[in-house]
Amino acid sequence: MKRYLSIWIIFGILLISLTNIPTIYARQVEIETDDLLVRSGPGTSYEPIGHVSSGQVFTYLDQEGEWISIDYHSETGWISAQFASITTEQENWEEKPSNDEDAQTDGNEGTVFTTIIPVDVVNLRSEPSTNGDIVTEIPIGEMISFSVMNDSDWIHVTWGDYTGYMPSWIIGDEMQFTEVQDSIFQGKVIVIDPGHGGIDVGAISAAGYYESDYAMMTSEVLRDTLEKLGATVYMTREDDYYYSLSPRASLANLHLADVFLSIHYNSTPQYPSANGMNTFYRESNDRALAGYVHNSLIETTEANDRGYDSGDYSVLRTGSRPGLLLELGFISNVEEEENIQSHQYQRKMTEGIIHGLRRYFSQR
Ligand SMILES: [Zn+2]
User: Fold this and answer.
1) How far out from the chain centre does Cα 24 lie?
2) 121 pairs with which residues across the strands?
3) Is residue 356 situated within a structural domain?
4) Do both 207 and 293 map to the same domain?
5) How many domains does the chain have?
6) Looking at residue 210, what is its pLDDT?
7) Which class of enzymes does this protein belong to (predicted)?
8) How many C-beta atoms surround the C-beta of residue 127 within 10 A?
9) Rounded to the nearest whole angstrom, what is the distance from the C-alpha of residue 224 to the centroid of ligand 1?
10) 218 CA from centroid of ligand 1 (Å)
11) How far, in Å, from the CA of 328 to the mean position of ligand 1?
12) Is 95 among the domain residues?
């Protein structure tokens, strides 16, 4: 939201000299033993709050002596450091093996990659064999994290709360990966508008970061995923520069976009507990689109549901294409900002938007 913009610009200029570019993706912790207790504090005297197992990956929060804290279902959980490894995944978010060799090299064992399921449905199994029980089925377009296993045609996969194994050929063949795409997105044109930019930093977060940076982070993840699914994506800005609002929607008109998405984060420093997501549309024709995307976002992220509604936003006003403005959470809320910074939550938001778009396109 662009409230008190002039105050924020002044505040922003003051902050520019004091803050660095945010480290957008938190570090990750991979569990290396089965049935490891998660505790509420850094020591065996703290009460257990759950269990984690080998291969599961969590966002790293902090370390105290021999204990590491992780984002455990949006709570802070502590585990013994000796049973886990901390990975610097920062680039891995978009990293996938560029070819078979990369995926199969011994040196990559333990490295966590992220990719998108390129085939209709994959069985996730409890063991690296077709004899293993089916833990769950993962549909096309879902994002998984995986690590390569030495001397095996199987990879170790984490998808949401599930872990298991799938054959490496599913993600290993670059040609297949790029050729097999989700037909629903093929030929679709999506224009993504990372809100604000440049001198207009948007809202300032509880931790002192800018809405414009968070909007860009989410937009880039969304763009990369949509492109992998076969969509053509245009961004209204690729850099940290301010572009006025009406040309942003005009870009969607120009490219005859199937959908225009303006990405924002909310902020109410006066009510730091406010949280959750809103979705706005301008034309009543776009109400169905708003419903699909909003409800999917709430489903995948479990964010507080602030509803979807019509809103007369300038960035939507000049658009003649179906368009939404997404307020993806309150960066003035400390907990919500921590979520937004995390790799897993960004993935969930992207999944939510993509599920919603898939439902919308398949209804037309
Ligand atoms: Zn905004």
Assistant:
1) 11
2) 139
3) yes
4) yes
5) 3
6) 95
7) hydrolase
8) 12
9) 22
10) 13
11) 10
12) no
Which pLDDT does position 89 carry in this prediction? 45
- Residues of the chain with pLDDT > 70, as a percent, come to 81
Residues 356 and 281 in one domain: yes
Cα of 240 to ligand 1 centre, how many Å?
A: 14
In this prediction, residue 261 carries a pLDDT of: 97
Q: Are 189 and 234 in contact (CB under 8 A)?
A: yes
Q: Evaluate whether 61 touches 32 at the Cβ level (below 8 Å).
A: no
Q: What is the mean pLDDT of residues 142-171?
A: 83
| The residue to which tokens 């570019």 are assigned | 21
User: How far, in Å, is the centroid of ligand 1 from the Cα of 327?
Assistant: 7
The predicted pLDDT at position 267 comes to 96
Q: Tell me which residue range forms the domain holding 61.
A: 28-87
309 Cα to the center of ligand 1, angstroms:
16
Q: How far is the CA of 93 from the centre of ligand 1 (A)?
A: 24
- The answer on 173 and 78 residing in a single domain is no
pLDDT digits (tens, 9 = 90+) for 346-362: 988 998 999 999 999 98
Q: What is the DSSP letter of 283?
A: S
Q: pLDDT by residue (tens digit) across 83-109?
A: 888 775 443 333 333 344 443 344 445
Average per-residue pLDDT in the chain?
82
Lowest mean pLDDT among 115-129, 175-189, 217-231: 175-189
- Does one domain contain both 222 and 167? no
Pairing of strands 162-167, 143-148: unpaired
* Cα 217 to middle of ligand 1, angstroms: 14
> Strand pairing partners for 14?
none
Paired tokens of 117: 């399921």
Beta strands, E only, the chain: 28-31, 36-39, 48-52, 57-64, 67-72, 75-80, 84-87, 113-116, 121-125, 134-139, 143-148, 154-159, 162-167, 189-194, 232-235, 259-266, 277-281, 305-310, 323-330
Helices of type H across 210-272: 211-228, 245-254
Mean per-residue pLDDT, 116-140: 85
128: domain CATH number?
Answer: 2.30.30.40
Give residue 326 CA to ligand 1 midpoint distance, Å. 9
Cα 15 to ligand 1 centre (Å): 18
Question: Does residue 232 surpass a pLDDT of 90?
Answer: yes
What pLDDT, on the 0 to 100 scale, is given for residue 167?
85
Tell how far the Cα of 1 is from the centroid of ligand 1, in angstroms.
4
